[in-house]
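U., I forgot to send this yesterday:
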Amino acid sequence: MAESRPDFSIVVPMKNEADNVAHLVAAIEEACADQNFEAVFVDDGSDDGTAEKAKALGKPWLRIVQHPRSAGQSAAVHSGVMAARGAVICTMDGDGQNPPSEIPNMVAPLLGDTPPGLVAGERQKRQDTLSKRWASRFANGLRSLLLRDGTRDTGCGLKAFRRDDFLSLPFFNHMHRYLPALFKAQGLSVMHLPVSHAERHAGASNYTNLQRAIVGAVDLFGVMWLIRRTKRVSRDETRWPDDPEPS
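Result:
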């Protein structure tokens, strides 16, 4: 008998998050207990046994993708989406700061009759250091001013979208930070959803504020160039071969 297709897939990029795996798996299982789902954990070249700890839990709904070496968060998300079997994807960070209890609310609009292109989480009462919040606020303000994407928190890992829409986007390193602007450039709508935020469960961040600032400045101008050369008609405005003739 063919294996049933999940209604949605949860994609979690992870690098050296071994101490967070069990906590995250338990929280996802509790949040999605009555859902038809799968989770795809992408081990991005970890050297602390992240993948092994995930496999040892033996959850039938959990699948593991492994990169032989670290390729970055965007590459990990892309690999997870490629491996996913659900038509709807929800992404989240692997450090425990995105509460899995938010997942059902994130995917619900995409399972409805008139789904948006992207559901983007916006963190409320962030549990980060003051310096990290200031750096994020500055980066988000500059990005919003230049890209006009209407998003105040593009760094939130909680996002939901249709698999085929995501895979139609141009892929590049750090693209995960610009999904609202990229979806809008393709003529797809963006819904913003307030989500809660938690302290990191264990371990340390893989990024510093300086690293984010340097790569962010380069990426921002690259995305501006890309979007200005993108011309698309929205999916809702397009007439497809099987559409009825207008009355």
